[in-house]
Amino acid sequence: MLPTSRSMPVCTAHQLLHACARLSSPEWLGQGGTPAFITLAINPGIPPYPGHSTSIRLCAAHRPSTGRLESRHKQEDLEQEKQQHRQNIRDQEAILIHLMCKVVNLLHSGASSSLELQLPRLSLDSKGGAGGAQQAQSCREPDQLSHQLSDSKTAFISCYLSNRGIDVSALYQSNFQDFIAYHGDKYHEDTNTLGFINLGLSENKHCIDLLTERLSQSDMNYIDDDLLQYPDWRGHAFLREEVAQFLTYYCKAPDLLDPENVVVLNSSLSVFLTLTMVLCDPGDAFLIPTPLYSGFTLTSHLYSKVELIHVHLQSKMDTQPFQLIVDKLEKARREAKFKGKKFRGLVLCNLNNSLGNIDTLDSLKEYLEFAKRHNLHVIIDETYMLSEFRASIPFHSVLNMKSLPDPNRTHVIWGTSKSFGISGFRFGTLYTHNKEVVSAIGVFGFLHGIAGITQHKLCRLLQDRE
Ligand SMILES: Cc1ncc(COP(=O)(O)O)c(C=O)c1O
């Protein structure tokens, strides 16, 4: 057993990579060694334990091989074992690639002055599997761990979290560290002139005064029984009706949009993530033009485990820089198919974050026709719908089209975070003709729904066209 405070030898990135390489060596694989997990922490605050500063301990569970040798006299057994061995190597390679990605992410997160690597000693369960998590817990005292975490703001290390939890935690650290710092020390023109100004966040603060005034009016403070009870999980009918009217008006839809095609959830990204959940199985893929909004990447990884295949746009085009053209989509689709990817659709963002581009109605039609040709879903995020600022390039929603090429595979996202500058409200909405998608997504209102009182306020805001 590793001693408590001394169980985390400090190592350099180079040593870490070396350790990963060792795990794939025949020395480990040949014995069926299965490292359950490696826990990494970026922990600049804790000095290396003397004698361990340059060494890394590798611990792995070795599956008992009782009886294997005796039965190996037959040629088939040997062959079977070789196959198993090759499979082991493939599995180990997959684990290593995953670990290397984590290492690279951690290094990229920029917090590392030293890396600590802990390889928990693994126990054997009765079936020969590795009970790594429990054993890891015994490696260190929990109190000490939390002390270290709070003291030195360790990026993450845990003997409490599952592998999935560790993954999520890593994601949180690599994506939100700056955001947390910003929230702890925000710039203020009078009280904190040395605070952070967040240039990485798209928050519209220009109409906060107008919204504060509107939200302070008496009609906003309405409460009734229904608002205090569980709502229809797709959202209260009064709000879905208002959303349908609002979108009809601002998207210039040729016909009145149907409230039954609307679902409201607690953000545009919640709508995105639930769409990927109900349209894909884990490992399925979506094409997405890049540069892209990182929220898509984070969200699809967090829940649905959908792969986003990037369609790289170029800055040098004859007509418009970074323009998406169908040829690029076709090429990306062919390449993905060739690699055996099962992909289900295309994610579009109009107006585009991060480019600011606006798609013309003609190009939108081409993208939708492309999707229809290949039976692909199109998720189109129009969250920035009301943020156009050049009259010469007007925004067109796909809901503006007389008829959608494939209505049952076209799903439109909008929300108030950008258009109204109220990202704190957490409101996003889906418009889709596909009733199966509506009902499947509706289920998520159970978890990602909006408070009744907020739904009322949102309804009043949407009614107000001034
Ligand atoms: C394209 C796009 N969609 C969605 C969001 C997030 O919106 P919400 O706060 O409603 O999740 C953002 C935020 O920057 C965005 O840029």
Automatic annotation (TrEMBL):
Signal sequence extent: none
GO biological process, one term: amino acid metabolic process
Gene3D superfamilies in alphabetical order: Aspartate Aminotransferase, domain 1 (3.90.1150.10), Type I PLP-dependent aspartate aminotransferase-like (Major domain) (3.40.640.10)
Domain of life: Eukaryota
One MF annotation (Gene Ontology) recorded for this entry: pyridoxal phosphate binding
Keyword list, A-Z: Pyridoxal phosphate
Ribosomal protein recorded as keyword: no
Chain spans, region Disordered: 64-83
Domain called Aminotransferase class I/classII large: residue spans: 201-441
Biased composition (Basic and acidic residues): 69-83
Family annotation (PANTHER family): BIFUNCTIONAL ASPARTATE AMINOTRANSFERASE AND GLUTAMATE/ASPARTATE-PREPHENATE AMINOTRANSFERASE-RELATED, INACTIVE 1-AMINOCYCLOPROPANE-1-CARBOXYLATE SYNTHASE-LIKE PROTEIN 2-RELATED
Protein name: 1-aminocyclopropane-1-carboxylate synthase-like protein 2
Source organism of this protein record: Myotis davidii
